[in-house]
Amino acid sequence: MVYVLLAEGFEEIEAISVIDILRRGGVEVVTVSIGTSLFVHGAHHIKVEADTVIKEIELDAGVKAVVLPGGMPGTTHLDESKDVDRLLHEAVKKELLVAAVCAAPLVLGKRGFLKGKRATCYPGFEDYLKGAVLSENRVEHDGRFITSRGAGTAAYFAFEILKVLKNEAIAEKVRTSMIYGD
Fold it and tell me: What pTM did the predictor assign?
């Protein structure tokens, strides 16, 4: 199971692409509002109903990954949330896959999780990736962390997550079925 965290002001394409591609690949995805309401508004005023709220979840044995979509002010809300902070520290301790796209890698960088890791982010947020080996690649996968640059790289980000959680053949099958080019 994968938790996709949704904060007010999240970048819709980054969240929905991940949810859709992972589900097409047979991965159970649970959308998690980091607030108290199941309804979360994206940066472009698309209202999404999450499956649950963050106070109701645990990182039990079935959870394999936590995904942070970017967007503004969604990333700021993720960064300021004590519940997100607790969840991320627990995920890192349990060696789960942690993935962040666009501005959201700053949440990982500010906590020191990316120190010595190859990482990428939306241009202008590099200073927050403390100690990371910065890249301008669409997607970087280093150890238990996957980072990506933004809305335009969201599908590549999702395919990389799928490849790690399932395998390359399944990721390629989903990509091909979607006629998603390189």
Answer: 0.97
What whole-number distance in Å separates Cα of residue 169 and Cα of residue 127? Answer: 36
C-alpha atoms less than 13 angstroms from C-alpha of 31 in its C-beta half-sphere:
23
Q: What is the pLDDT of residues 43-61, one digit of tens each?
A: 999 999 999 999 999 999 9
Domains of the chain: 2-177 (3.40.50.880)
Question: Which has the closest alpha carbon to 65: 154, 4, 13, 149?
Answer: 4
Long-range contacts of 106-109 (CB under 8 A, 24+ apart): 106/75, 106/79, 107/68, 107/75, 107/78, 107/79, 108/68, 108/145, 108/147
Count of CA atoms in the C-beta half-sphere (13 A) of 40: 31
Query: Is 38 exposed, middle or buried (CB count within 10 Å of its CB: 0-12, 13-18, 19+)?
Result: middle
